[in-house]
What we know:
Shape: elongated
Distance between the termini: 48 Å
Amino acid sequence: xxxxxxxxxxxxxxxxxxxxxxxxxxxxxxxxxxxxxxxxxxxxxxxxxxxxxxxxxxxxxxxxxxxxxxxxxxxxxxxxxxxxxxxxxxxxxxxxxxxxxxxxxxxxxxxxxxxxxxxxxxxxxxxxxxxxxxxxxxxxxxxxxxxxxxxxxxxxxxxxxxxxxxxxxxxxxxxxxxxxxxxxxxxxxxxx
Length: 192
């Protein structure tokens, strides 16, 4: 459990205090406006962040496994090296966010927007990304095995040297998408 109450956490963050590295397990910050806060390395496992506004927040290295982040605004947030295993980010805004080397194993990303986001070397194994907006996203060297990308928009995305083995791209939009060097064994939905 978190070492602070919801009210204490909100007060500290709003006053500009950093909570980097703090244990905030299962904290509920749903619907809060927390633009630009520093939660780098914080333990936010199973946190409730539904519809929270974390625009520009630093969550690099944070533990967000199993977090409920439905509808979360993470525009330009820093999530490099963060762990979001089995997190629910459905219908969230991650446009221009940095998720380099982030772990999104089996994350729920249905309908989320990653326009111009940086997901280089991210682990997206078994991620559910139906209807996701990945326009202009960088996914170079990402592990995208068994990813559901049905009806996703990959226009101008870069997937250089990514592993898309066993993934489904049925009805995905792939205009000007760069698959150079990508591994696409047993892929469903496009002809390679």
